[in-house]
Write a structure and sequence with these properties.
This protein is of the alpha+beta class and 109 residues long. It contains two helices and six strands, in the order H-E-E-E-E-E-E-H. It has a domain of 72 residues. The strands form two sheets. Strands 1-2-3-4 form a four-stranded antiparallel beta sheet. Strand 5 and strand 6 form a beta hairpin. The longest helix has 10 residues.
């Protein structure tokens, strides 16, 4: 799935700094600041969202650091010349960017 400009504009309503990037045949949305509700607080991570199938998952959310106590099987990947972390979360069906991203974030609450 390539990133459709209209969907990226929808995503920018909540994340105005979101921008499309690509590497190695994959499309990504870079989110410099992703706020994640976590244990009665908000944690902030830089994020890279891949809305297409990758590594056997329908889509993936990569974070600048793992979220302690959430997710399982965290693994590091080198993407766009930076180390990103993601976990084993395979239950987000393909759909609109905002919906997929919200489902990934909800898994980290």
């Amino acid at each position: 799935m390539s990133i459709v400009e209209g969907e990226l504009e929808d995503l920018r309503i909540g994340w105005p700094d979101a921008r499309a990037m690509s590497e190695g045949g994959y499309s990504y949305v870079h989110l410099p600041v992703l706020k994640i509700p976590h244990d009665n607080a908000i944690i902030i991570r830089e994020a890279l969202f891949c809305p297409q199938q990758r590594d056997g998952y329908p889509n993936r959310l990569f974070l600048s650091e793992p979220v302690a106590g959430r997710g399982g099987n965290w693994i590091a990947h080198r993407i766009l010349d930076k180390t990103w972390h993601t976990w084993s979360w395979n239950y987000v069906p393909a759909g609109r960017l905002t919906v997929m991203l919200a489902q990934h974030v909800a898994a980290l609450r």
